[in-house]
Amino acid sequence: MNIKFFLNLKTIKPFGISFLCACFMFSFILIFTPRFNSVYSFTVYSSDGKLLGAAAADDGQWRFPQSEVIPQKYKTALLTYEDKNFYFHLGVDPASVVRAFFDNLFSKQVVSGASTITMQVSRLSEKNTKRKFVQKLKETVKAFFLELKYSKNDILAVYAAHAPYGGNVVGLEAASLRYFKRSAGDLTWAEAAVLAVLPNQPSLVRPGKHAEILKAKRNKLLYNLFLQNKIEGTSKNPL
User: Fold this and answer.
1) Residue 10 resides in a domain
2) Is the whole model's pTM more than 0.90, yes or no?
């Protein structure tokens, strides 16, 4: 074999392997990056940003366009309830996994989950309600790639825009207007707490149905917020 060719081959080979690995990773990311192909409600706003009117989306859902601004009360309530380590993990929270394992082990039934906000975004993009192991694993992988590709605020914004709120109400802004007749940025702490806990069981605990269950969940969250010095006593707000 020609020595010059052999040397060139030795030089090119590592680059070729690196190129193939890069192509593989890029394809992997494309496959496991969540995508939302949602249609949104038709909305009309005034020049100062006030909602003048809206119509349901073509699929019959009340789903408002995604906003990059997440109201602070809602964000605080949501992360306290769903994912307190949100800013410190890469899609999977090891502490929550361990906690859920022992909670479920000692209870001999599933009483606690370990899904992070990022994993829930992954699941929402699939529109798949099956909770099999393979699906859970896929959600975990997708959550990791979500964390690599997007900022924490982007992930929160996607969750807020696509979380289910019962019936044909999807997303924080639609739920806020539907249930409390005000924009999400104007919610009280009690109202923000309701919308933080509601996606966890949207078909069971929506306002007007099973109200006592919803109130109990809301009040427990408000109490935790109070213990963490994030709010003052406010659980008496009417639902």
Assistant:
1) no
2) no
Q: Which of helix, strand or coil describes residue 173?
A: helix
Is 222 part of any domain? Answer: yes
The residues pairing with 43 across neighbouring beta strands, listed in sequence order, are 54
Considering only CA atoms, which of 148, 157, 200 is closest in space to residue 26? 148
Helix orientation angle between 152-162 and 72-82, rounded to the nearest 10 degrees: 90
Tell me the residue range of the domain where 177 lies: 33-227
Q: For 65, which DSSP code?
A: P
99 assigned to some structural domain: yes
The angle at the Cα of 44, spanning 41 to 48, to the nearest 5 degrees, equals 135
Each as own residue / partner, the long-range contacts of residues 38-46 (CB below 8 Å, 24 or more positions apart, any chain) are 38/63, 38/162, 38/170, 39/63, 40/64, 40/65, 41/65, 41/174
Of the candidates 181, 239, 196, 179, which has an alpha carbon nearest to the alpha carbon of residue 215?
Answer: 239
Report pLDDT digits (tens) over 10-57: 555 555 565 555 544 544 554 455 566 778 888 888 888 788 888 888
Indicate which CATH number applies to the domain containing 208: 1.10.3810.10
- Do residues 192 and 179 lie in contact, with contact meaning Cβ atoms separated by under 8 Å? no
Q: How many domains does the chain have?
A: 1
pLDDT tens column, 120-170 = 999 888 765 566 767 777 888 888 889 998 999 999 999 999 999 988 999
User: Per the domain annotation, does 11 fall within a domain?
Assistant: no
- Strand ranges for the chain from DSSP E: 42-45, 51-55, 62-63, 169-170
- The three-state secondary structure class of 183 is coil
